[in-house]
Amino acid sequence: MKMFLISDNVDTKTGMRLAGVKGVVVHEREEVRAALDTALKDKDIGIILITEKLGKLIADDIKNIKLNYHTPLVVEIPDRHGTGRTPDSITKYVREAIGLRI
């Protein structure tokens, strides 16, 4: 299985390309959705990496994929400026996904 990157930053794409990960650089919501749709259609892609900034643009789409698709795994990654997540983001995700408070 392959990994695919959806990034808003050329530097992130370059770094991931050096690690063998192909990807695209996009900036607008519709570009992000189009890149995500293209990646979802490729059955060889098992992991989609998306920068957190772009993840926020299509948060509902990503949430739908995480909750309803077996593959691919969607992973939001910080860009070179660091993470934008709150300290309890994983706890919140688990609570929303399965309804348990941990």
TrEMBL record:
It comes from the Bacteria. Coiled coil: none annotated. One of its GO terms (molecular function) is proton-transporting ATPase activity, rotational mechanism. The keyword Ion transport applies. Keywords: Ion transport, Transport. The keyword DNA-binding does not apply. Pfam families: ATP-synt_F. Belongs to the V-ATPase F subunit family. This is V-type ATP synthase subunit F.
